[in-house]
Every structure is written in C-alpha cells, then in structure tokens.
Design goal:
eight-stranded mixed beta sheet; 10 helices; Rossmann fold; 35% helix
Length: 251
C-alpha cells in the first residue's frame, strides 16, 4: 500500500501526494555504491524514487563492510551492483533498480546521464567526479557530488544554468597529490552523513523545494563535529560551463 509506505512523505507540506508521484516517476543515476553510494541508494529507494541506475564494477571485499552498509558479509566476492540491487528490492519493491557492471567512463557517461533525471556522484576519484560534472552539463542534468577522507567530508550540488559547476571549484590534481582512503582511512559514519546529505539534495532538486547546495560547498569535520560552508561563484573561464566552453566534454 503506497499510502501507508510513503505516509510520512505525504504529510510533509512540500511533498504531499503530488510530490510523491513525481518521485515515483523520477530516475536517479548513482555512480558508485560504496561508502557514499550505500546510504544514498538506501534512502533514495526508501523515498520512492522510481528508478535507480547503479554504475559499479567492483566486487565486495571484507574491508568494504566498515562503511558500505548496503552490502553484507555473505556477499564478499560478489558483484557490488547486484548485491545492492537485491538489498534495494527487498527494501522497496516499487523501485526499479538497474545495474551497469562497468566503470563510468567516456564511452557511457553521456548516455547514462541522459537517461536520468539526476546524477549522484559517489565515486572515490577526481577524474570520475569531473566526468560526472561534464556529462551532466552536456546533458543539462543536475548532479550532487560528495567526497570523504579520514574524518572529513564535503558535498555540493550543481544545476546547469543555475550556478557554478564542479570545475569552477576544482581542477584535476596531479597524481599522488590527494591521498586515498586506502592510504589514510575514513570513518564509516562520515561517509554515511555525506551520503545522506546527497540523498536529501536529490529529493529537494527533483521536487524543486528548499535551498539546494548550489554555489555552496558544505564541509564536515567529524572530529570536531563542525560544519562549514564555502560559497563560490561561476568561473567565466571554466572549460565546462564558462563563456567560451564548447559542447565537447573537457575529459
């Protein structure tokens, strides 16, 4: 019974039946189903997003389970995307879950983005985040991009034509400049916090409610439990969204 399942959504003044119907008819592209993608996927499915496409090429490893809560111990060695799909279908049979067992790359980026209403980047590297940004601009689709490392996390949202893009804020760093979670670790619950913020941003953007993190980078220091907001503007010289940007993706 959908009225019972989504009852708490239906009582919200900015959602109600009309908003829930929009969510049920919406599609989300999730790039990665690890530390960030796990909570994103669970809460998007719970909210009633009609279709979730998961792009993930990795297999489940025991070390994933410290933070990748959509997975479980019996799934070690299995394909992450398929494990996540089964979990999400158990959570909400209303949600169609599509899996793409490959990396998000130059060959499939624009097609996958074009088929979705919103993109959520939950990858663990700058190149993929920049590609998500560029493909989203090319296809005029909103996206949320998050990242975590150690006790820290950050997240921002991007809507083409309504503010700056990810390349206005970040450039591709040189190899070795940014450590990985494999090298320095990450607190699992920090991944959860940032992922849940991304899921919240997705619902807000899909329903055009509230104030998304457009032109705002939200930073979390998990040790001090402090949030900081950095405002940033569109860069006129940005290769993706600037005045002279071409239709071809920079990557």
């Amino acid at each position: 019974n959908q009225m019972e399942r989504y009852g708490r959504n239906l009582r919200l003044r900015n959602i109600s039946e009309e908003g829930q119907e929009r969510l049920l008819n919406s599609s989300a592209l999730l790039v990665g189903v690890g530390g960030l993608g796990s909570p994103i996927s669970l809460y998007l499915a719970a909210a009633g997003i009609g279709r979730i496409t998961i792009v993930e090429s990795d297999k489940v490893e025991l070390s994933n389970l410290q933070r990748q809560v959509v997975l479980d111990t019996p799934s070690v060695g299995m394909r992450k995307a398929e494990v996540a799909k089964k979990r999400l279908k158990k959570l909400n049979p209303d949600t169609e879950v599509r899996t793409v067992d490959s990396r998000f790359d130059d060959d499939n980026a624009r097609k996958l983005v074009a088929e979705s209403d919103i993109v959520l980047d939950a990858s663990d590297n700058f190149r993929t985040k920049l590609l998500v940004n560029d493909a989203s601009i090319a296809e005029r689709k909103p996206c949320s991009i998050g990242s975590v490392l150690e006790y820290h996390g950050q997240v921002s949202s991007f809507v083409p034509g309504k503010g700056p893009c990810y390349r206005c804020l970040f450039r591709q760093p040189k190899d070795g400049m940014v450590p990985t979670t494999t090298e320095v670790g990450v607190l699992g619950s920090v991944s959860g916090i940032i992922g849940l913020i991304q899921a919240t941003e997705a619902v807000k953007i899909l329903l055009d409610i509230g104030r998304p993190l457009i032109g705002r980078l939200l930073l979390l220091d998990g040790l001090e439990m402090e949030f900081q907001e950095i405002k940033f503007q569109r860069n006129p010289g940005c290769p993706s969204c600037g005045e002279d940007a071409g239709i071809e993706m920079p990557i």
